[in-house]
Amino acid sequence: MTDQAYNFAYLDEQTKRMIRRALLKALAIPGYQVPFASREMPMPYGWGTGGVQVTAACLTPDDRLKVIDQGADDTTNAVSIRRFFQRTAAVETTERTADATVIQTRHRIPEQPLAEGQVLVYQVPIPEPLRFLEPRENETRKMHELEEYGLMHVKLYEDIARHGEIATAYAYPVRVEGRYVMDPSPIPKFDNPKLAGNPAIQLFGAGREARIYALPPYSDVVSLDFEDHPFTASKADHACDLCGAGSSYLDEVITDDRGSRMFVCSDTDFCASRQAQGHRGRLSPQGATP
Amino acid sequence: MYVAVKGGERAIDAAHAWLAEERRGDPAIPELTVAQIREQMALAVNRVMAEGSLYDPDLAALAIKQARGDLIEAVFLIRAYRTTLPRFGVSRPVDTAAMAVDRRVSATFKDLPGGQVLGPTFDYTHRLLDFALAAEGEVPPAPQAPARDEPVPHVTGLLDRDGLIEGQPRDDTPAPDLTRQPLELPASRALRLQALARADEGFTLSLAYSTQRGYGRTHAFVGELRIGRVAVQVDLPELGFAVEIGEVELTECDTVNQFKGSKTEPPQFTRGYGLVMGQSERKAISMSLVDRALRWQELGEDFTGAPAQDEEFVLSHCDNIQATGFLEHIKLPHYVDFQAELELVRRMRREAVQMQEAAE
Amino acid sequence: MNAILTGGFAAPSTQSAHAFRALLEAMARPGRIFAVMGAEPPAPISVAAGVALLTLTDATTPLHLAGAADCEALRGWIGFHTGAPLVAADQAQFALGGWDALHPLSRFRIGEPSYPDRSATLIVELDRLEAQGARLTGPGIETEARLSLPETAAFRANRGLFPLGFDCILTCGARLAALPRSTIVEDA
């Protein structure tokens, strides 16, 4: 049931055209942040208003939408955004990554590799990768213009001097097509390799900061590093305690106040699919796979 | 035993039902009507209209009721509603010189054409709790005086006549629209004023206060503060003339500030300006001080690093809907990013301990 | 007169949504050809060019009409269906015309160094649009794509301006493809 008081996918057509124009320019200049006239949405800034606007501009009635937050379909904000589109666009929804045509995400890239025909929409809080080094927009804009990314390298190098490695665990900056340095949104750096060479279209929406950017399929995306300190995509050194997966990103769950903990896949669809296929982890109710 | 958390949907529904119940409060107490809020909480309604950028007292009152009196939440409801409204046209600039004033005070002249009108103000009330209000007594009618049938010219106009204040030539450039174009810096004064008019009252107040304490001081006098109703007129091209479509209540503040001049130019006072929907004089005065502080470059003053002089700082942080959304979003799940840091910190600690042991 | 009032989207919100997805995929995958429908602009304008106009332009997007596209019928149609103001080439956010009519291309905006997005999008009407001919590589293309471009030199020069440059939507009948500034174009 759509809410007839609002246009298809909530936004009015003029707003959608404005966002669509920005999206096309974003694809034409990979990694460059296109300013757009972000609207005030009926959900708070910082809660996915950028992603919601991008999704609204891309959705067709034929789409199957998946919404995840922290990799999970059932986190409250994912539920809330999914409901918003069920109500305003009457699109089909799914929790299965492979079945989705549009996936809106916060902080994760699904474990299941994406395919052509899929669109991954990221919610972005701070789109400017240089923002924490230089708070002023006028300055960071100039730095992008002149490809002055030395400050970023200095910061990363200071990390190495202090901690012995680059101490950035999420929102790890990348260089796109050898030109723009881009913030991949606060995904764990474990997910960074999936940004590159991805067959799907990746779109990034920052509502409060009014910026849209994009990665065309198969884009060249390199995580910043140094020859003697190469980038590594790390994760907790465990297997999933429910499905036994050894190569998925894990959430840590504290199970009592005496130091017990377990690790489970953050991607709930991935974990559930594996369990349905009979995979078992250390703490599966049915016991581990022999 | 841990099972993956399911039931977000049910939790949301239950939370909303509980919220509705809490909003209503004790059902034995009569429910507030929107009209009661509009009439008796008028200054809250004004603030919601001003920061929500939508002049509709009934909707603002409804938003306050729905938001349980949380004014920023009410502003948010109004903003979200406002974005969906079609735009039929743009009014002519309102003529505040023709305002039907309820209140008009000047701190710069003892008396002036149009007079000083104290109006319905908290000024000079002793802030003593009035327990008679708790008894719900009716208020005796206020004494009436005949309206003064004379024009109320702007104080700055009087100063301008003598060349004592910087001129303000008429500018018919269409004003930019902050809600339809992404903010671009440097911003024009018109855009800055638009942002300040809907800015958070508390933030604007604190910035203005900081200029008074020396962080970008501008030596402001309230040349004039006026509150009243002005006509809103819309040009109808089909008819070839403008028609009045209604009235809005506004608060306008003109400050007369620190003079400038040089060997070649005789000294002149400068201006700060504030205009806010509804009766909202704390906000209008604050706005005019911040406006003036932001004009340092145009007036050839030094940038002292004061927050109120810093256009990007002020414009990026004055909107309470942006601020509260982003601030409160940190209560959303961040398991994934936190896990990434946890893993990093654990590993670095392990390595540090190993190095320590190796050293020993 | 009737030709002006008809030929728009009958169900704008869903038809433009489908059309945009085709445009999005096209701009994301340079050289790949997509079928679109829903617009019936007056001759000599193609369905695909009409779809692109209806989906992307409105009263806020200055449009330049070049050559045969600059005709009474189309001006009226655009005025009624999109309201896009018609302007000279150097003012245009969008331009529509045949490849030769759009020349000289140096008239079009290529963006500013700090705002490369402030550049024109050219809707290029072609007699032929096939997945053969010039070799395309770059973002959006896994290995290589082929596209029947009217020439390659102009696109190479445009690529040389990156991140500045114009972007193209190539239209032919009810099919379209796109060629963003990022694509590397070589002779077949």
UniProtKB/TrEMBL annotation, chain A:
This protein's record includes keyword Iron: yes
InterPro entries (UniProt xref): PhnJ
Pfam families on file: PhnJ
Keyword annotations of the record: 4Fe-4S, Iron, Iron-sulfur, Lyase, Metal-binding, S-adenosyl-L-methionine
Presence of the UniProt keyword Transferase in the record: no
Record function comment: Catalyzes the breakage of the C-P bond in alpha-D-ribose 1-methylphosphonate 5-phosphate (PRPn) forming alpha-D-ribose.
UniProt family annotation: Belongs to the PhnJ family.
Record protein name field: Alpha-D-ribose 1-methylphosphonate 5-phosphate C-P lyase
Natural source organism: Paracoccus thiocyanatus
TrEMBL record, chain B:
Family matches, as InterPro entries: PhnI (IPR008773)
Span list, region Disordered: 161-183
Segments of skewed composition (Basic and acidic residues): 161-173
A single BP term in Gene Ontology: organic phosphonate metabolic process
Protein name: Alpha-D-ribose 1-methylphosphonate 5-triphosphate synthase subunit PhnI
Record organism: Paracoccus thiocyanatus
From TrEMBL, chain C:
Regions crossing the membrane: none
GO biological process: one example: organic phosphonate metabolic process
InterPro entries: PhnH-like_sp, Phosphonate_metab_PhnH
Taxonomic superkingdom: Bacteria
Name this polypeptide is given: Alpha-D-ribose 1-methylphosphonate 5-triphosphate synthase subunit PhnH
Organism in which the protein naturally occurs: Paracoccus thiocyanatus
